[in-house]
Amino acid sequence: MTGSGPARTERRIIHIDMDAFFAAVEQRDDPRLRGLPVAVGGNRERGVVAAASYEARRFGIHSAMPSVTARRQCPELVFVPPRFDIYKAVSRQIHEVFARYTPLIQPLSLDEAYLDVTNPRLDRGSATAIAIEIRAAIRAETGLTASAGVSYNKFLAKLASDHRKPDGLFVITPKMGPGFVETLPVQRFHGVGPVTAARMQALGIHTGLDLRRQTRAFLAEHFGKAADYYYDVARGEDARPVEADRVRKSVGAETTFARDLARWEEVGAALEPVFAKTWAACERGGYAGRTVTVKVKYADFRQITRSRSGQEPVASRQELERIGLDLLRPCFPPPRGVRLLGVTISNIAGSEPHGWAQMALRFDRLNA
Fold this sequence. Notes:
- The chain is α+β, with helices and mostly antiparallel strands and 368 residues long.
- Among the domains are: 21-82, 3-Layer(aba) Sandwich (MutS, DNA mismatch repair protein, domain I), CATH 3.40.1170; 178-233, DNA polymerase, domain 1, CATH 1.10.150; 250-367, Dna Ligase, domain 1, CATH 3.30.1490.
- Helices cover 39% and strands 21% of the residues.
- It has a five-stranded mixed sheet. Strands 9-12-10-11 form a four-stranded antiparallel sheet, covered by helices on one side.
- The longest helix is centred in the last third of the chain and has 19 residues, at 267-285.
- The radius of gyration is 21 Å and the shape is globular.
């Protein structure tokens, strides 16, 4: 495909996302779980759902949800302790399938990856044909289903893979891209979380078309460094390359409060979903990190961070919370209202065997 001006080759990107991966592996290996609402994770009071089967999702169960909440929403929910050694082995099988077609593979986690098949090892005439073959091979060799999105950039490929989940395939062509984006609610955009979506909606930005109507300067005023990304994707554009062998450097989450915080007593409850989301991301991706960093942004947008590193990776969500709150305690009472708090784990060794051993150890402790 060519655009106006000098001839150029459109990139061909595939986004593969395994369907309810951890839960699907458990249902594959234990036929008694098939058809039941299954949650992978600890079922103790401080446990977190790492993954949920589609049967469980019908009850609103999702990853990062506290286990007690999940149990309350679905009393029949079956909790299964994670088996990360098995998930890692299956993930390797899946990546062996990818590697038959391209060396340009960017894993996002054990169950999700971008593939650049612009110049594939095995050319099947189109990216769509390659995606069809990959999904069939995954099913035949692992007994699991995958959803695929095909497009000319990463942003649209990811949107496409979500469009017909589970066990689906969707293609967004260059002609479709801008129109597909303009009808999309902003909360569906990858990179727009609930807080940012609420800020956009307060500014009258509800859809991709609304976002496209904003100037780059307006977006920079309200969304800072993310402005260029929002400006581009609202037009169906995304120049980010597929980065093969990309190493994850950190995992984190943050939240902006509707009302500025001033009292220490408010912090624990306010950060509960942030700790849950960060820990669930570690579990999902198999990441084990030694450094915890907290971020505090004040009402005047001044920002500070505080960090602590240990000799061993953080071993549990409880330890993450303890370190995070210890780091934040000296920051209260604050000199002015706190509008945002964030937590990040870095110095990650999750791609190494040691990291996986630590991940298994965490769940042994949580489920003891």
